[in-house]
Write a structure and sequence with these properties.
Layout lengths: L15 H8 L2 H4 L4 H17 L5 H19 L12 H13 L1 H5 L6 H38 L3 E6 L2 E7 H25 L2 E2 L15 H7 L4 E2 L3 H36 L7 E2 L18 H24 L14 H24 L1 E2 L1 H7 L6 H10 L4 H14 L6 H6 L6 H32 L4
Parallel strand pairs: 3-4
Antiparallel strand pairs: 1-2, 5-6
Helix pairs in contact: 3-4, 3-7, 3-9, 4-5, 7-8, 7-10, 7-12, 8-10, 8-17, 10-11, 10-12, 11-12, 14-15
Bound molecules: arginine.
Length: about 450
C-alpha cells in the first residue's frame, strides 16, 4: 500500500503544527460523513459515465469499491488518518489504490467544496427525516396518554399559582400542538434541503457536460441547486436552519421536562417517574432523582448554543468557499444527535409516566373554581364585574365553596372535535414527509447497488 496522500499534495514540506490545526477534528467527525460521501460519489461516478468520461467497466469498478467502503464504514472499519485530512481524501485514496486508472478519474468535475456540501446536505436530510419520525412518535405517546388520562382534572397555574381548573388532557394537548408545529418546521427544513449541490465544483460551475439534474435525481433530490456560488453560501446557512429546528424540537422536550420537574416533585406529586427512569444518590439512601428530566433541560440549552455557534462561524463571511465552513460540521452533528436523543428519551418518559389521580383530585381546591362561580352568577343575569366582586368577598372571608353548577360549567377539558382536528393536521404533515421519505429511500437504496 502506498502512503496516504493529501489530494492537493505538491511535494512541498508542510508545517506539522499548521497541518494539525487545519485538519482539526475532521478525521473523527468525518466518520459520520463517510456513508454520505460514498452516496454522493456514487451519483457523481454515474454522472461521469453518462457524460462519457468513464467507461462502463470503470464505473462498475468504482461503484463496487464505494459499496465496499460504505460497508466497512458502517462496521466501523474504515479509518481516516490525520494525513488524509478528511473523508473525501480517505475515500479517493482508497479508490486510487483499488480501481487503478478509474480511481484517478473519480475527482473529474468536482471539488471537495461541492462534495462536502453534498455530504452535509444528505446527512441533514437523513436526520431531518429522523426528527420527523421522532416527533410523530412523541405525538403518538402524548395522544395515547391523552386518550387514557385526558379527562383527569388538574389545576392550571399562572405565575405558578393555582389559577383555574385544567386537566391532564389539556396539558398533554399543549405539548402535542407544539410537536405538530415542529413537524411542520421539519417539513419546511426538508424542502430547503431538497436541492443537490453536486456539479458546481469549487463554486463557479464545471466546464464539463455533467447532467446535474440526473445527479440530483440519483440522490433523491427534487432538483439541482441552480447557483454554484449559492451552493457555498448556503453551507452554514442551511446548517444554521437545521440546528435551529433541532433546538426548537429540543425546546419542546425541555418544557415537558420543566413541567415534570415540578409536577413529579413535592408538594405536587401529580405524576411519578418509575424507578427505572430515576437515579440514586451516592450519600443519601432515600433519594430517587429525576436526573433524566434535568439533563433533558440541560441538553436543550446546549442545542440552543449550537445555533449561536453556527451563526458566529458562518456569519461575517463574504460569498463562496472559506475554510471557516469546516467548523460548521461539529455543531451540526451535535444538533442532529442531541435532538434525536431528546426525542427518544422524551417519548420514553411520556410512555412510562404514572398519573397519580388521588394527588390530582386533592389539588382541585374550591378556589380554582372561583371564576366559574362568577360565571354561574353571570348565567343568572348578574353583570360580570358584580359577580367577580361577590365571589371575591366570599373567598376573602374564607366561606367560598364551589358548588356543582360552578364545577360542571368549568372549561379546561379537551373536546373530541379539537383532537380530531389535531390528528388530521398531524396526518397531513406526516403524509407530506412520508412522500419525501419514500423518494429518498428509493434513491439512496438503489445508488450503491451496482448495476
Ligand atoms: N474539510 C473541508 C470542509 O469541511 C473540506 C473542503 C476543503 N476544501 C478546500 N478548498 N480546502 O470545508
Amino acid at each position: 500500500m502506498s502512503e496516504p496522500r493529501r489530494l492537493w499534495d505538491k511535494g512541498e514540506a508542510l508545517d506539522a503544527r499548521i497541518h494539525r490545526f487545519t485538519v482539526g477534528d475532521d478525521p473523527a467527525l468525518d466518520r459520520e460523513l463517510l456513508h454520505w460521501d460514498c452516496l454522493g460519489s456514487a451519483a457523481h461516478v454515474r454522472t461521469l459515465q453518462r457524460a462519457g468520461l468513464l467507461t462502463a467497466d470503470e464505473t462498475a469498478s468504482l461503484l463496487g469499491e464505494l459499496a465496499a467502503i460504505d460497508a466497512r464504514a458502517r462496521a466501523g472499519r474504515f479509518d481516516i488518518s490525520p494525513e488524509q485530512e478528511d473523508c473525501h481524501t480517505a475515500i479517493e485514496n482508497h479508490l486510487a489504490q483499488r480501481c487503478g486508472p478509474a480511481g484517478q478519474k473519480v475527482h473529474t468535475g468536482r471539488s471537495r467544496n461541492d462534495q462536502v456540501a453534498a455530504a452535509m446536505r444528505l446527512f441533514m436530510r437523513h436526520h431531518a427525516l429522523r426528527f420527523a419520525a421522532g416527533l410523530e412518535a412523541l405525538i403518538a405517546e402524548l395522544l395515547g396518554r391523552l386518550a387514557q388520562d385526558g379527562g383527569v382534572r388538574m389545576p392550571g397555574y399562572t405565575h405558578m399559582q393555582p389559577a383555574m381548573p385544567s386537566s391532564v388532557g389539556q396539558w398533554l394537548h399543549a405539548h402535542a400542538e407544539a410537536a405538530l408545529e415542529q413537524l411542520r418546521a421539519v417539513e419546511d427544513l426538508l424542502t430547503r434541503l431538497d436541492s443537490c449541490p453536486l456539479g458546481t465544483g469549487a463554486g463557479f460551475g464545471v466546464g464539463l457536460p455533467l447532467d446535474r439534474e440526473y445527479t440530483a435525481r440519483l440522490l433523491g433530490f427534487a432538483r439541482a441547486q441552480r447557483s454554484p456560488i449559492d451552493v457555498q453560501n448556503s453551507r452554514g446557512r442551511l446548517e444554521t436552519y437545521f440546528a435551529r429546528v433541532a433546538a426548537d424540537v429540543a425546546a419542546i422536550i425541555e418544557k415537558l421536562a420543566c413541567d415534570l420537574l415540578i409536577y413529579t416533585g413535592p408538594p405536587y406529586g401529580f405524576f411519578e417517574l418509575p424507578a427505572a427512569l430515576t437515579t440514586g444518590s451516592s450519600i443519601m439512601p432515600q433519594k430517587r432523582n429525576p436526573d433524566v428530566l434535568e439533563l433533558m433541560r440541560g441538553w436543550a440549552g446546549r442545542l440552543r448554543a449550537r445555533v449561536v455557534e453556527l451563526e458566529w462561524v458562518r456569519g461575517k463571511l463574504p460569498s463562496s468557499y472559506h475554510r471557516d465552513l469546516q467548523l460548521t460540521k461539529a455543531p451540526t452533528l451535535q444538533a442532529a444527535a442531541g435532538a434525536q436523543d431528546l426525542l427518544e428519551v422524551g417519548a420514553a418518559v411520556m410512555r412510562e409516566l404514572a398519573v397519580r389521580k388521588e394527588r390530582l383530585a386533592a389539588a382541585m381546591s374550591d378556589e380554582l373554581y372561583a371564576t366559574d362561580a362568577a360565571y354561574a352568577l353571570v348565567r343568572r343575569g348578574v353583570p360580570f364585574r358584580e359577580a367577580y366582586a361577590r365571589i371575591g368577598e366570599q373567598v376573602r372571608a374564607g366561606v367560598f365553596r364551589a358548588d356543582a353548577g360552578a364545577r360542571a360549567g368549568a372549561a379546561g377539558l379537551v373536546d373530541e372535535r379539537v383532537l380530531s382536528e389535531l390528528r388530521a393536521d398531524v396526518a397531513e404533515a406526516a403524509g407530506q414527509i412520508a412522500r419525501i421519505r419514500e423518494r429518498v429511500d428509493a434513491a439512496e437504496g438503489a445508488l450503491l447497488n451496482c448495476g
